[in-house]
Write the structure tokens for this entry.
Amino acid sequence: MPRDGSTTRERLIAAAERVFAEQGVEQASLVDIHKLAGQANKSALHYHFGSREDLLRAVLARHVARVSPVRRGYVDAITARQADGTEPTVPELLTALVQPLADQMHTESGRYCVRIAGHMRTIGGGFRRHGAFFHDVPEELPWIYDRLAERLDHLPERLRIERLAVWNDMVAATLADWAATAGTEGTDAVFTADELVVNLVDMGTAALLAPSRLS
């Protein structure tokens, strides 16, 4: 009986998730992905996805589908407080960005995707330019960044964008490193995942609210 096409597709996505995480997005062996997915047919990946980039998009789409509802919950809570006259703080907005990612690290699949995000920060212009990352951006992300812009109006736009980009890079690298070493024998974690978020938010808040000598 032939294997269902949707099953093959899901096996390839799951295999790619692991291989991309362990080998890097650009270095990942497509042969290894086929083997891990149990595919003897070396054209299966091309048949189902067309290219490495489209396979990456599929992996990220599955990750976004898990993260977005969590982040939307944070946004809903913030907008509910706004309705009562309470404007969001910078720590609240940064937490809405990073906590949903950290929550994914409780599963193996989530840790793989966090590691993939860490790899992506160093290729193709990183998060600022990588097409796969910015494909079909969930609406809650620009909403959060718009609210941050309102809170950071002491900064020139170019400086605000740069500081947020640097903080995003730091978050991606830190979470990816934690995800790669979590549970590894002989590795003593300095923080739990939740403590890691608190520290990243505290550092981001300090950096974003700091005065600048640039105009």
